[in-house]
Amino acid sequence: MTYDVVALLERMPSDEDVLASLAATGTEHRVRAVSGGMVIQLCDEHEVPLVSIDTPMYIQVPGEPMRQFGAAYADVPTPTWWVEIRAAAHDAGSRLAWRYAEELVVRTGGRIWAPPPAAQNGAEHA
């Protein structure tokens, strides 16, 4: 199972935004690109992926965040940039995913969605 987080951003993240958000997760992780550069992974010292970050998707459909995530997301404007962040379903992975998403939203504006911890096979975020 994975712990999934979605960052709904007000603008396309720049390279600087992505690098700063990666740095916010800590310096002890290795970074690698996979899938032809479409996915960035944070890995442990043994190259085991802890977090996978997809390339941002531009969502133009009005109401799509609400349709996907419920009425609490009705105020998310479209268009929006949608970044999926998947982590190994354990506390360390979920904390990394959440920290990356938080920094990205601080830098670009927007909101974070994550299902309740019970829906994530017991993973929790701090």
From TrEMBL:
It comes from the Bacteria. This is Uncharacterized protein.
